[in-house]
Amino acid sequence: MALLLPVLASAQLSISGKVTNQSGEALPGATITINNPAASVVADATGKYGFTNLKPGSYTLNASFIGYQTISKNIVLAANQVINLALVNGTLAAEEVTISATRAVKNSPTAFTNLSKKDLAKNNFGQDLPYLLSLTPSVVTTSDAGAGIGYTGIRIRGSDNTRVNVTINGIPLNDAESQGSYFIDLPDLASSVDNIQVQRGVGTSTNGAGAFGGSINIQTTTRRDTAYAEINTSAGSYGSIKNTVNAGTGLLDGHFSLDGRLSRIHSNGYIDRATSDLKSLYLSAAWYGKNSTIRANVISGHERTYQAWNGIADYVIGDNTRKDNRTYNELGLMDDAGNFYKDQVDDYLQNHYQLLYDQKISSKLSFSGALHYTKGKGYYEEYRRQDAVANYGLTPVIMGMDTIKTTDLVRRLWLDNEFYGVTYALKYQPQSNLNMTLGGAYNEYKGAHYGNIIYTKESAGIGPNYEYYRDNAKKNDFNIFYRAEWHLNKVLLYADAQYRHLYYNFYGIDKNQQNAQQSIELNFFNPKVGITYQLNEQNNVYASFAVGNHEPNRDDYVNSTPQARPKAENLKDFEAGYRTVGKIFSGGINGFYMLYKNQLILTGALNDVGGAIRTNVPDSYRTGVELDGKVRITSQLNWGITATWSANKIKNYHQFFSNYDDGTLVEESFKKTTIAYSPSLTGASIISYSPVKGGEIAFISKYVGKQYLDNTMNQNPAGFNIAPDNQSNPYAANRYLKSYFTSDVRLRYNFSISQVKNIGLGLQVNNVFSKKYEANGATYPDIEGGNMVNYNYYFPQAPRNFMAMLSLNF
Questions:
Q1: What is the per-residue DSSP string for 375-401?
Q2: What's the CA gap between 483 and 495, in Å, rounded?
Q3: Which 8-state DSSP code applies to residue 675?
């Protein structure tokens, strides 16, 4: 031992490792230093570093990189050591500043779910964005084409997408007039998303239309410090295929970055003639300074889909003798021989331009703002058999001995619109336990609605591309909000108040050949308060109260006159819950009571010109309990689960049924009834097992309870029975969607080789047990011959189907 001591004293040791950010991405060019004696190295292209020829002893290891906080570690070196260093974003995390003004934070008294880029990538096989959110609490998704590609829908707590506020980088996505969010216009957006927050209820103040069921806040790609290239291809059932190419420069010269994506998605759809051809582009250029960041985004999408939005008639889907009873799409049918019009399509191009700016003014004050412009133009084209020329403002044409009153024709209904404005937020943190935000937006919308006849079978006395209506609209939307959070030991006090002013007008001739001209001005005040009590580091309880107001949509105004104009909707939202975060279990329980005043729903009533309208109901509510949690059973086995129990009711409700026998309306009254499309129970489960490093097997289940298609709870007016022809067909006899329980299996395996950072293989089998179910539908009941007749339409979803995926990351 004495002879070996001089050898040990002169031993040459080493320190090595890898420098990454918190997402695990390498940080080439990071500087690593040690003392005693002072030395420094620079991380290589893969983020690796190393010090050699070191003597045993104590060292201080420092790592730094622009835009990140310097990290220090004290080391006692007695043997070779591998020390990996993960750097945290610096004080100015620019892209987070841009959108945090409209988001809930960790302990906010709000019900929300955060999804990371990694969470989204696991399920991104090509289906539309709502399907990537389907496992979050209280969410129900639907697909017109039946397989998740094409037109899809999302409901949160039973509220459809016109009542769900959606923003991209804090900029409103909802259409200013219809108030819906059409993710089909931005195909494969998920491949350029860094994270999403889904809020339920009114939530925090945001830009755009009010959140009556929830809000979806999307943040696109943030800074990636190393250059990359990614190729992703998915293919599967119904001719579905997705091709995506992503690439980025990483951080150049410590200041610049450029990211881009190209995507193409095609699917034939499960439903007949429900094809989708989707293309999209994403470009993002950013400049990073010491205290400021500028980012410019271009997001473009083009969709061309064969129309499948009417669903399948009850007499077809209920006919089990037909092989196509679950897939038959009658839209575009031209003649009795069964020929279909090949261009019965929806065709729309939408381009988004965003300029985001963030500035750290001082250690206590920061500013974020955005300029945006969106241009959209497109049409839906349809074949009309023997349509009356009078419907198009035309006088019947006399040809010889014949008077042309009807003709086969093809028409296009156009929308040409633009949306632009500014959003901003000024954040002030005078002390560590108090932060305040002053934010808001001003946006303008201009939309031209017009229709053309591009073909007539018989001459109707018109020239080519005849325009038969035009209705122009303009909407100005201004809002300003103030929010404060005050931490008092274990208590967080939250207050948020928003003022919103709207001006909306339209004028011209509408598609029903009616003179359409209205001007509307609305003012809303939306206060919110809440409290969170931190029981300990892992557990908290919270409660909040929020007020939301929501304007009627375009159809509500167009289908009414100023004298019969609907009122704005009002919501008072009470929430309370408990959250816990632990090594074994993380989750929470949330209770809600959403009290509506003047909620707008279809009641069967007609307006003063005889058209079906949505009508204000004075008193309705949604109340329920939401559960979500994730348990780590072993290091390899995890189980996540969500469930919602709810009651969704209208008090003192009146439904009207048209009586075609005498031209009257038959009224039926209900003391309390269930709101349509509002299941009382929904739930989801995902059991994931990782048998090997980089591998995962997941079993995913989804349950959605019974949903009524109208607000009658399937009851008929007194004295009227279901028509005999309907009685034997459950799809015609009833006005509801049956509950359904579906299961999917997802397999993923990721590995790397020397020249490829990651190779990903994936397989998703949807509806593995081929459950026959309908996720959506519509009903148009009336009275004929003294009997109740239902005209129901359903959207069947695909039986067992699959998508396989290959991704390469360089």
A1: EEEEEEEEEEEEEEGGGGT-PPEEETT
A2: 6
A3: P
* Domain assignment of residue 57, given as a range: 5-87
Residue 250, C-beta contacts closer than 8 angstroms, at least 6 positions apart: 28, 224, 225, 226, 227, 228, 257
What would the two tokens of residue 779 be? 């009903």
Q: H or E element: which one contains 97?
A: helix 94-100
How far is Cα 683 from Cα 701, in angstroms, rounded to an integer? 8
Distance from CA of residue 351 to its chain's centroid? 18
Q: What is the mean pLDDT of residues 525-550?
A: 95
Strand partners, 10: none
- The pLDDT > 70 percentage for the chain reads 96
Tokens of 805: 């995926």
Those residues whose C-beta lies under 8 Å from the C-beta of residue 486, and which sit 6 or more positions away, are 433, 434, 492, 493
Tell me what the mean pLDDT of segment 530-544 comes to: 95
Torsion angle of alpha carbons 426, 429, 435, 436, nearest 10°? Answer: -30
**∠ CA(44), CA(220), CA(244), 5° rounding?**
75
Range 473-496 average pLDDT: 95
CB 368 within 8 A of CB 437: no
User: Per the domain annotation, does 623 fall within a domain?
Assistant: yes
Closest among 234, 91, 74, 216 to 149, alpha carbons compared = 234
DSSP state of 63: E
CB 88 within 8 A of CB 69: yes
The two structure tokens encoding residue 139 = 């969410």
- State mean pLDDT over 390-415: 87
Which tokens sit at 152? 């899809």
180/159 Cα distance (integer angstroms):
11
Place of tokens 């970055």: 257
* CA dihedral over 668, 671, 673, 675, signed as positive or negative: positive
Of 87, 121, 144, the one marking the end of a domain is 87
DSSP 557: H
Question: At residue 487, what is the residue type?
Answer: H
pLDDT score for 432 = 87
Ordered alpha helix ranges (H), 593-741: 724-727, 730-733
Q: CA nearest 222: which of 290, 293, 292?
A: 293
Last residue of a domain, one of 36, 63, 87: 87
Beta 164-168 vs 214-220: how paired, if at all? parallel
pLDDT digits (tens, 9 = 90+) for 181-217: 999 999 999 999 999 999 999 998 888 877 888 999 9
Distance between alpha carbon 187 and the CA centroid of its chain, in Å? 12
> pLDDT per residue over 39-93, tens digit each?
888 888 778 899 888 888 888 888 887 667 778 888 888 889 899 998 876 644 4
In a domain, 248, yes or no: yes
Amino acid at 97: V
- Cβ 657 vs Cβ 150: under 8 Å: no
pLDDT at 78: 87
Q: How far apart are CA 420 and CA 474, in angstroms?
A: 12
- Total count of domains within the chain: 2
Q: Which amino acid is at 197?
A: Q
Q: Could you tell me if residue 35 is inside a domain? A: yes
The Cβ of residue 366 has, within 10 Å, a number of other Cβ atoms equal to: 22
Domain membership of residue 782 (yes or no) is yes
Q: The CATH number of the domain where 26 resides is what?
A: 2.60.40.10
> Which segments within 567-706 are labelled E, that is strand?
569-581, 585-597, 599-606, 612-617, 620-632, 637-659, 664-674, 681-689, 695-704
Residue 315 near residue 321, CB atoms below 8 Å: no
Cα separation, 205 vs 480, in Å, equals 9
Q: Judge if pTM exceeds 0.85.
A: yes
pLDDT at 93: 45
**Facing residues of 666 across strands?**
657
CA distances from 593 to 400, 425, 575, 615, 619 (A): 68, 30, 7, 22, 13
Q: What is the CATH number of the domain that holds 623?
A: 2.40.170.20
Residue 91: count of CB within 10 angstroms of its CB: 10
Four-point Cα dihedral 126, 127, 132, 137, nearest 10: -170
Query: Looking at the chain, how many residues does it have?
Result: 810
